Amino acid sequence: MELSSVILTTGGSVGFFKLVNTGFNNLPIPESACRNAWKWRNISTSFVHSVITGIWAVLCFFLHPQMAEDLIETHSAFSHALVSVSIGYFIYDFFDMVLNQKLTQSWELLFHHIVVITCFGLSVLSCRYVGFAVVALLVEINSVFLHLRQVLRMASLAASTLYRVNSMINLGTYVVFRINTLAWMTRWLVLNRDKVPLLAYTVGSVGMAIMTAMNIVLFYRLLRSDFLKSSAREAKKEKEM
Predict the structure, then answer these.
(1) How many structural domains does the chain have?
(2) Rounded CA gap, 45 and 24, in Å?
């Protein structure tokens, strides 16, 4: 893809997710979520992005399996467009948080978005490592359940069967599509050190280290919130009985 196509695709993505967010503003919101309507719309928009890019990333490897053998040079226009669309989403979400949320509440995600935009941006502009970026987007499969978890909590459905089922699927996909994917990407980067220029290797290594640390912390928070605390509450009820 030429630079003009990249700019057009990325800009179109920013506009698309803005429209999605506006669309959610016109839909009914659960009463329990009305006190923070912006967060409801933001998470719902993120959910849409995860569904689209998660499916898209799988299709990229299904339709162009050669990319799995060469994550540096081999890619299709379909894959390149996926990474450009994701950059557009992260740019949109970055400014949505900057304009609507306190920095103390969003600095972790803002930092995450800066790292992703930088790494993905280098990939689409150089037309290299697109396959590696698509592998990274496989984590969005887990993000579907991660965002659904937040939606259910905001809708006061944290005690529902749907929430408990989603929590188990969320934790399982977290291990498979986040932790395992990050571990595989780190291993790939180390094994292909000689094929990767110093700048790209440094950016990739720093980005992977940051993503790994953030995901380990998030995994602990999810485990504590959805399983450890609930187990403690059940044990307390049994003692009281």
Answers:
(1) 1
(2) 8
From residue 109, give the alpha-carbon distance in Å to each of 12, 72, 114, 169: 22, 27, 9, 23
With bands split at pLDDT 50, 70 and 90, how would you rate the model's confidence at 238?
very low
Specify burial of residue 133 (Cβ count, 10 A radius: 0-12, 13-18, 19+).
buried
Q: Which residue range is the domain that position 120 belongs to?
A: 3-240
pLDDT in tens, 62-113: 999 999 888 889 999 999 999 999 999 999 999 999 999 998 889 989 998 9
Q: What is the pLDDT of residues 139-151, one digit of tens each?
A: 999 999 999 999 9
